[in-house]
Amino acid sequence: MKPEQFYNQGKVYFFDDKVLVADYVRIHEPDEVEKIIVLANEAVNHSFRFALRWDMERTVVPVHFEGAINWLYQPGDDSEWVYAFNRMRFWICLGQAYALTGNEMYAKAFAEQLCHWVKQVKKEDPLCAKAWRSIEAGLRLEYWTKAMLYFKGSPHITEQVVDTFLSSVTEHAEFLMGVWDSYHLMSNWGVLENHGLFIASVILPTSARTLEYQAEAIRRLALESEIQVYDDGMQWEQSPMYHNEVTHDFLDVLILARRNGIALPPAFILKTHAMCKASFTWQKPDGNEPCMGDSDEIDQRDILTKGAYLFADPLLKGRALEHFDFDTIWDLGLAAQQEYERMPSTKDPDSLGVLKNSGNAYVRRGESYIHFHCGTMGAGHGHSDQLHIDLFANGEDILVDAGRFTYVAKAERFEFKDSTAHNTTTVDNENFTVCKDSWECSKLTCPVNFDYNQKQGYQFVQGGHLGYLHKGVFVNRKLIVLQDDLLLLCDEFYTKGKHSYQQYLHCNDAGFVSKVGSNFRYRSDFNDVEFCLLSPDGASGIIPTRVSRHYNECKDNKTIVTKITQEGFASLFTVISINKPNVFSPLVVKKVPVRSNFKGIVFPDYQIEAVTLFKGDSSYTVAVAHQEWASPTDTFLADGCTGFGNVVVFDRTKQEKEIGTCLHA
Predict the structure, then answer these.
(1) For the sheet containing 647-651, what is the strand order?
(2) pLDDT (tens digit per residue) in 536-548
(3) 273 and 307 in contact (C-beta within 8 Å)?
(4) Residue 188 and residue 421: Cα distance in Å, rounded?
């Protein structure tokens, strides 16, 4: 097919006017332009690394080929390098560099590399198996297509190059038509594959067969959106990064379908919107997705921006970008950017956001953000993170998830995936979820008791799990947020036997962690945080750990570990006080007895406990019941405060002495 025929099929794709979009990014995204040019120049010179924001498996050190490229080369023990290499995301960089500069060396490099790959990497060759996984085939159909669109008008895109491209796209589509089973129905692989199949159906010249590609892709994508995405909008694998990748693919399909008059099932469109809303709910104040499961620290606001535009959703726009960023403008075009500028935006006033089906709660107060997880693990990309919390305040992380680092089945994989890599608890130094290899578990953990409430300016979240049921221990955690800078954790361990318990608090490596008296301090340029742990006869200390914010990268870190040993029921109270540097307000916490107003006795700790907290001008008494205590008709008395319920807060600065605020009955 002649190039002019290929580029003028009467179809509408992604960006509209290449020249105007290039002008836009030069003005609004100069840093990204510079980065793309660097990566494109490296690709021209046969030097490759995966350093883009949404590269799923990043690399830092470039791999250089003298002479011909070996598409099957693997530089180390990680096959992910071969997989990422054979997706060719860097060809989009070549296309964008061409659009920005008009330099034909980028078009020449693309055409030569495309033709060389098609000639060298054969699907039927067993030696090429790593390059021909179905997920890579699906991703190539997106990346190749988007790259090809940038080179319109280049003399290097000859009739031979177009024919090579179309022939290979057809081969990919035929391959993916034969890939469909229960695994691909349930895995993100299926979405990435069938998103590519849909794109192939649009970019190929229309025929009876391409319409079959299209119908089958839509059918599969509709089924995948129905089974993979919870009603709360979260993709079931419990990884924000893979959730956002799936969302990106669904949005791509929506863009092309709308622009080319292709009908999509209404349920698919609704699920796509729900996924954008889930990303909205968990987004941290700095715009990043949380590093949950196999996720990296990535600014995800482009996902919300596309979603806000496509669904005309002012709430999404309230946490999205003010203007289209580099990636979004190339996917939607300048006319869409102008429409987006005119759209209203709304700020979400709710302090407690809950994704009920997936078991995730998010508290936003002032400059603070807290995430609490009590839900399914999420298969291979999920981590052993039941009851984990993330804490962010004043522009930085305070308590962090350790990240993922690698997919290779070696010690590092489990170092970052195990329970001890998360801000949670363990029993007898054993993981509650046991990994069999990089992806499979020999023992899973059932989450239970997920509950939440918001009342009188307080937030309450709790959850438990059955991970230690074989040891006769039930684990539960309660979170009470008292004010923007003050929160209380209560870890509960229900058992008859004697066990040891460990609590882990992984601090941000950007700060300094120290023990001051019986408390701990985290100090940085943004925060001065005090941790008070009320652990009877326990031992607390700081251990060296590591944190990984991006694949293949990790840094040394510090983690606060508290250990207690007790027979029968045990509890551990942790109070976290957040301060800005140079305005530190000391925290005073005391455990107070809880009496029965009716019987005149002191309740045992295994029934109900209470603490009184003082910080600056604020003072609270919080009563936490671990089991039923009111018999026959009773109220409790804690530090002069009378109330009823399982979690009750008294604001002592308001002279609250009766009733208080019951957050959990």
Answers:
(1) 587-592, 608-615, 618-625, 647-651, 661-664
(2) 677 899 999 999 9
(3) yes
(4) 25
Residues forming a β-bridge with 567: 498
Cβ atoms of residues 293 and 237 within 8 Å? yes
* Dihedral (Cα; 73, 189, 182, 199), 10-degree rounding: -110
Q: Which helix (H) or strand (E) holds 311?
A: helix 301-311
Phi, psi of 391 (to 5 degrees): -135, 130
Which residues 6+ apart lie within 8 Å of 39 measured at CB? 49, 51, 52, 90, 93
How far apart (Å, rounded) are the C-alpha atoms in residues 402 and 383?
Answer: 10
Q: Is 536 left (phi over 0), alpha (psi -120 to 50) or beta?
A: beta
Under a CB-based contact definition with an 8 Å cutoff, are residues 177 and 209 in contact? no
262: which 2 tokens? Answer: 């292709």
Determine if the peptide bond prior to 349 is cis (ω within 30°): no
Written as one letter, the residue type at 509 is D
Give the list of residues 6+ apart from residue 631 with CB closer than 8 angstroms, or none: none
197 SS3 class = helix
605 token code pair: 């700790």
Q: How far is CA 385 from CA 359, 372, 445, 589, in A?
A: 12, 10, 10, 28
pLDDT of residue 604: 97
Straight-line distance from the first to the last Cα atom of the chain, in angstroms, rounded to the nearest whole number: 71
What would the pLDDT profile of 56-82 be if each residue is shown by its tens digit? Answer: 999 989 999 999 999 999 999 999 999
Q: In degrees to the nearest 10, what's the CA dihedral of 103, 104, 105, 107?
A: 120
Query: In which region does residue 400 sit, left (phi positive, over 0), alpha (psi from -120 to 50) or beta (all else)?
Result: beta
Which amino acid, one-letter code, is at 435? C
The pTM (predicted TM-score) of the whole model is 0.96
Two structure tokens written together for 486: 């003050």
CA-CA distance, 535 to 544, in Å (whole number)? 21
**DSSP H or E stretch at residue 272:** helix 266-282
Strand, helix or coil for residue 512: strand
DSSP string, 405-451: ---SSSHHHHHHHSGGGSSSEEETTB-SSEESSSS-EEE---EEEEE
pLDDT of 107 over the 80 cut: yes
Beta-strand (E) ranges in 287-402? Answer: 352-355, 360-365, 368-373, 389-393, 396-399
Give the C-alpha separation, 99 to 137, whole Å.
Answer: 25
Angle made by CA atoms 422, 237, 243, in degrees to the nearest 5: 100
What span, in angstroms and rounded, lies between the C-alpha atoms of 36 and 30? 10
- Helix 30-44 with 90-101: angle, nearest 10 deg: 110
**Are 64 and 91 a contacting pair, CB within 8 Å?**
no
pLDDT tier, 349 (very low <50, low <70, confident <90, very high otherwise): confident
Q: Minimal CA–CA distance to 337: which of 21, 13, 120, 125?
A: 21
DSSP code for 289: P
Residues in the chain, how many? 665
